[in-house]
Amino acid sequence: MSHTYLSQQLGRQIVYQGKTYLHFSGTAYLGMGALPAFKNLLVAGINRHGPNHGSSRNSNVQLPIYDQFESRFAENAGAPDALLLSSGYQAGQLALETLSKQTDLTWVAPDSHPAILPPRFKPYSGTFTAWSKHCIQKSKELIGQNILILSNAVNPLKPEISDFQWTKNLSAANRYFLLVDDSHAFGILGDDLYGTYSRWKGLPVELMVCGSLGKALSLPAGIILGDRLWIEKAKKSPVFRSSSPPAPAFLDAFLQGRSLYLDQRKKLLNNVHQIYNALSNQKGFNLLNNYPVITFANADWVEQLHELGFILSSFPYPGPEDKPVNRIVISAWHEEEDLMALYQALMKLRKTSTDY
């Protein structure tokens, strides 16, 4: 049975039809939206910059906060340059448009996000490992081609973290462009808050990273990271020139609130390690020791956990006719008692399940 929960505000608990549920859904991995200190920074940012900037970035009236954010984010990500947009989907489509004009062929990894997919393009249907081997073999059959490689940094549906070291084995007879969607990596993967760009910038590819900042970082914005040449080309696109930028207060809150983000990141990783240590030896769960998503095969558990007082992520994806993707999402807003209650509920279900 599918449930739609209406809530005034997301946090560790949601009240639905008079009952309080523990919330293990969504993508607010760092739980910033439920943090009073972060809300205070947003209010201060509104007082400083106003609630919105409904004008093109190319207008003759400028707000310096956008350049400041891009410069700081690029520097800390290890990227030459950055470009802000109002959503992750817009950032992905602009990054794709910019690189597609330079390339002859496009290779798409399994489960790549629709934001970086060409129209009517179907990703490879096998595993990521099989796909990477296929790309290596295919590269050896080609000469002088400009090839665009598209992939997520992490597949949050399994979960699975992508490794692009295999690109070192591509034939040197071609030129390669790698576009990575970091939407589910920002704030979690890497050594800081800035995603995976620094991890892949030494590969034999021309690298661009894009994605939503609205998940772990709780910023209603998208970003592109890459060489200045490609960022400058993206700036000339009507997609960028004719669109309004993100609300400036959120960007200001990020720049002012670094210590809050790092504290929440530390708490999230502690929560992830705790649940990983509890479940990693139990059959029936897919989870990683450094990523806040747990998947499981038994679809009946969604309804059963609802009855026990837990809200999980469960809805058809990516299309409305697809099967529901069922996930448990860990956040920094969870307390130790929440994780213990979840573990006990899962062990109860596992004990009564005929699958184990």
Helix % is: 25-40%
What's the total helix number? Answer: 11
Sheet with the most strands, sense and barrel status: 6 strands, mixed
Structural shape: globular
Distance between the termini: 22 Å
Q: How many domain units?
A: 2
| Sheet/helix structural class | alpha/beta
**Tally of strands:** 14
Q: What's the overall average pLDDT, rounded? A: 93
* CATH superfamily descriptor of the largest domain: Type I PLP-dependent aspartate aminotransferase-like (Major domain)
- What strand line-up does the widest sheet have? 1-2-13-14-12-11
Rg over alpha carbons: 21 Å
Secondary-structure arrangement, i.e. CATH architecture of the largest domain = 3-Layer(aba) Sandwich
Low-confidence stretches: none
Beta-strand content: 15-25%
CATH topology name of the largest domain? Aspartate Aminotransferase, domain 2
Order of helices and strands: EEHHEHEHEEEEHEEHHHHEEHEEH
CATH class of the largest domain: Alpha Beta
List the helices and strands and how they pair.
Blueprint: E1 13-16, E2 19-24, H1 36-49, H2 65-77, E3 81-85, H3 88-100, E4 105-108, H4 128-139, E5 146-152, E6 154-155, E7 160-161, E8 175-181, H5 197-200, E9 206-212, E10 222-226, H6 228-235, H7 238-241, H8 248-256, H9 258-279, E11 285-288, E12 291-296, H10 300-307, E13 310-316, E14 324-329, H11 336-352
Parallel strand pairs: 2-13, 4-5, 5-8, 8-9
Antiparallel strand pairs: 1-2, 3-10, 6-7, 9-10, 11-12, 12-14, 13-14
Helix pairs in contact: 1-8, 2-8, 9-11
